Sequence to fold (339 residues):
Amino acid sequence: MYNEFFGLKESAFNVSPDPRYFFLTPVMQEALAGLAYGVQRRKGIILLTGEVGTGKTTLLNQLMDWLRQNQAATAFIFNTRLNVEDLFNYILTDFGISCASRAKSDMLIRLNTWLLDRYVAGEPEPAVLIVDEAQNLSLELLEEIRLLTNLETSSEKLLQIVLSGQPELEWKLKDPKLRQLRQRITLRYRTSQLSLSETLSYIEERLRIAGAKGEPIFPPEAIESIHKYSRGVPRVINILCEHALINAFAGQQKRVSVGLIHEVAREFELDLIAPIVPPSSYGIPESETTPVIQAILAAMAKAAANFSPNESLLRDFAKHQDGAGPSMAAWTKSEAPKI
Fold:
């Protein structure tokens, strides 16, 4: 509707995770390279958490694209409102494994046999299970996922697992009943909100990809307001920019004013309700919030120190728009089968 008015070839701020608009901040680059490293080195369970709208699903889609380019076997669970039988049925179906029975024991045996067959055949590509929205999983299902890491040989894990979810997942994993799962998480990453400078670059990059040329559509003061209301959450930035452009078009304004940003923010009640939730809302008393966050950051820093993604991995993801990815030789070669 407004694209031609602003000289755009397409809408720049759709909320759907279009890979062409993937914005690679240093935090996202580290997380993406780390996810690839963990899968490549068969680390077992990898945890990815972050606030709503900060790019977790987009990050997982990038990882999935890379895995598929390298012909890895993947299963992607995005609806976590499942029971145990549904979980195993979903996993087998997405891996393309046939199983006539829907009994949990039969499906588990079939999955184990399939993984062992791949290992014996010497296939270098890993089998990867990715679970999005994992904060909605019950304690029972999280325990079932932990037990899947027992599918292994004497030398390596047969199934790599990526758990992704909102910060509530971090608090859920503190439950003493999940201490075994928590101890099996070998790498942890977290998406974050954009800084003011990153918000500016994010908006400019999306407009550039959509075909914008000439004078900036969003002046600096408008971008400051966008960052203030969005708290740097990409999804909320998209909503603000999209509706600000619509309102500017309706008023035949070639530049988005601060007033239009305030107007859109009020429409979505962003002046009253922040798009992110304070840590105290996850069940932690306000007085304990700061030390808990410090402990988590310390744990994440310690985990991050255990690996160092090589430069080739970083280059691979930095060139995402070129469609380039690691070659098949990048996968860790299996040793002689030891079953």
Observations:
- The CA atoms of residues 210 and 246 lie 15 Å apart.
- The mean pLDDT is 85.
- The longest strand covers residues 159-165.
